[in-house]
Design brief:
The chain is mostly helical and about 290 residues long. It has two domains: about 5-100, no CATH class; about 110-280, AhpD-like (Up-down Bundle), CATH 1.20.1290.10. The chain contains 13 helices and no strands. The longest helix has about 35 residues, at about 65-100. The protein is globular and about 70 Å long.
């Protein structure tokens, strides 16, 4: 039985014979524009079939109301199942391209520092000078390091952030080598010239060779790392890409690190994740005497 679909019944199609759907039903106008995933009809259908062992739902006859509900469900399924896979494939594709062009990874804005958006404070207040002295935030010539002089525009932020940053850099439970490998990889993944270059020097004081500093740049599997070091670098990658350490990486690290140390792994990467945002967005220049390491 065919039921004519009028303007007042655009949300409902009653068809007793599943093989018959009216022309008006097929021409039904959607209330919302097509979602990106809906435009990839073939890919979505294939993926649903693979994941759920069913025929593509968009080929089934159903009411338009039901069809929209199923399409929304399918979008959620695809988004849920493909997000991590897509990120992994994107990373592989990106790495392959940059390696083929002898670049490995692109550098972001802070690599060359053509533009400084917030200039370092040159005449800090007494409060800020006290922070610089107390926390040892000065270069060998006595001037404050550029990152701290930039944050000096916001003394309250600088003071409160330093409590956390000091824990991560000097008081956490990780071995200095583990900490610096995490920071180097984080700086490299964010293409932060300032962060990577500063810690390339610090790493040499933490049982890390210059060769190992350079080996934090390529894909982890090509760096010749032992299992523990590779897991540290993978943890930095996974937090960068997926905001979560994978079960496999977690298990490898947890076989040698305590729960307290595992928390320090996460928060070390998180701190330098935020620092990279500030360095790149503000255009913080390398300090005098620090060679570019990227």
């Amino acid at each position: 039985m065919h039921v004519k679909v009028g303007d007042a019944l655009t949300d409902y199609v009653v068809v007793r014979d599943e093989r018959a759907v009216t022309v008006e039903g097929y021409r039904h106008a959607r209330r919302q524009p097509l979602h990106t995933f809906e435009k990839r009809t073939n890919e979505i259908g294939i993926e649903i079939a693979k994941r759920h062992n069913v025929t593509p739902r968009h080929d089934q006859n159903m009411s338009l109301e039901h069809r929209r509900a199923v399409e929304k469900s399918d979008r959620d399924v695809i988004a849920h199942h493909l997000t991590h896979r897509k990120r992994s494939l994107d990373r592989v594709t990106e790495l392959a391209w940059w390696f083929s062009h002898d670049c490995i990874l692109p550098l972001r804005q802070d690599a060359n520092m053509h533009t400084t958006r917030i200039e370092p404070v040159t005449n800090p207040s007494d409060e800020v000078n006290e922070l610089f002295d107390k926390a040892g935030l000065r270069a060998p010539d006595g001037s404050p390091l550029n990152i701290f002089a930039t944050l000096a525009h916001h003394p309250a932020l600088l003071r409160r952030w330093l409590v956390f940053a000091t824990h991560v850099l000097a008081k956490n439970s990780l071995a200095p080598r583990d900490r610096e490998l995490l920071i180097l990889r984080t700086g490299w993944r964010y293409r932060s010239q300032y962060e990577f270059s500063q810690h390339a020097l610090l790493a040499l004081r933490c049982d890390i060779t210059d060769d190992e500093v350079q080996r934090t740049k390529p894909p982890v599997g090509e760096g010749g790392w032992d299992e523990h070091d590779a897991a540290l670098l993978n943890a930095a990658d996974e937090l960068h890409d997926d905001a979560c350490i994978s079960d496999r990486t977690w298990a490898t690290l947890a076989s040698r690190l305590s729960d307290q140390q595992m928390l320090d792994v996460i928060f070390a990467v998180g701190n330098y994740h935020t620092v990279s945002f500030a360095l790149s967005s503000c255009g913080v220049r390398l300090d005098d005497g620090v060679p570019a390491a990227m």
